[in-house]
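Deliverable D2.4 — example input (structure tokens):
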């Protein structure tokens, strides 16, 4: 199929390349001309503007948007929709909140423009390994874009989850679970590093990949990271969050479903950004006041 790809960053650029490798025709656009040139070098047809991209696609058009969630996605889809015609399809493959999908789909429907959300997992490894794709939208739209999904995903790696919003909802929960898994691995490896034994953490991570109940792709990536830098000295402990963990916790509150692991793992990410927290200093101050315990001066 012939498909447009807007946003050629770490994910979008590789997705465009994987589509081309799978026999699809990709018209690629990014605000950065260098990214467009790179995509063209991998077989895509470059576009110099959104209008140029839509002109190069036959009606009914299918355009996949892979830009950061929030205002960038909103403004991109608004500008794109102004150039599209009834019957055209917009796919948001970023990390949009599912409630925004529902609102956006309703607005586009009044103009005859179709909309799908596709939660996309795979990161920078997706070009080689494929992407896990969680799609939300009408069954007819899913069938229309399924050839591209089949190319982007590994075997059995894509699913029509339900109506608009369901794809990003499933991806949101996926990322919440990811937070908890990452935090558990990080804590376990720190315990081993701090123990009385001189343990080879890289070898342990690779050992656990062979038959262990805790084996996973994240554990495999831990092994790669430790192989490159056993002490992780090139990193600080700052850990950002892109929104999905917060939204998962908010949804757990809305549904009255306890989610202590995911909630705490999100809070630990907040803590990682505090170099010298006021709460921590307050704890030290209280211990000093009531018990005369020693403190470390700044």
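Example output (designed residues):
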């Amino acid at each position: 199929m012939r498909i447009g790809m807007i946003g050629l960053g770490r994910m979008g650029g590789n997705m465009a390349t994987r589509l081309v490798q799978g026999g699809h025709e990709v018209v690629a656009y990014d605000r950065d001309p260098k990214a467009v040139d790179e995509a063209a070098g991998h077989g895509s047809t470059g576009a110099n503007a959104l209008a140029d991209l839509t002109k190069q696609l036959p009606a009914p058009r299918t355009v996949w948007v892979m830009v950061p969630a929030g205002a960038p996605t909103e403004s991109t889809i608004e500008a794109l929709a102004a150039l599209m015609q009834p019957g055209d399809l917009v796919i948001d493959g970023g990390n949009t909140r599912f409630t925004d999908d529902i609102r956006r789909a309703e607005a586009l429907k009044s103009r005859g423009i179709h909309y799908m959300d596709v939660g996309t997992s795979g990161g920078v490894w997706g070009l080689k390994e494929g992407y896990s794709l969680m799609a939300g939208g009408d069954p007819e739209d899913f069938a229309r874009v399924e050839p591209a999904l089949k190319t982007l995903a590994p075997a059995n790696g894509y699913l029509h989850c339900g109506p608009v919003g369901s794809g990003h909802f499933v991806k949101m929960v996926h990322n919440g679970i990811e937070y908890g898994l990452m935090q558990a691995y990080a804590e376990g490896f720190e315990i081993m590093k701090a123990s009385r034994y001189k343990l080879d953490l890289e070898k342990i991570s690779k050992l656990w990949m062979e038959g262990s109940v805790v084996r996973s792709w994240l554990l495999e990536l831990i092994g790669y990271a430790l192989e490159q830098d056993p002490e992780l000295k090139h990193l600080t402990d700052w850990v950002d969050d892109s929104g999905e963990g917060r939204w998962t916790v908010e949804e757990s509150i809305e549904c009255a479903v306890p989610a202590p692991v995911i909630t705490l793992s999100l809070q630990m990410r907040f803590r990682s950004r505090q170099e010298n927290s006021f709460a921590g200093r307050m704890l030290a101050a209280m211990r000093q006041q009531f018990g005369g315990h020693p403190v470390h001066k700044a």
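The longest helix spans residues 166-194.
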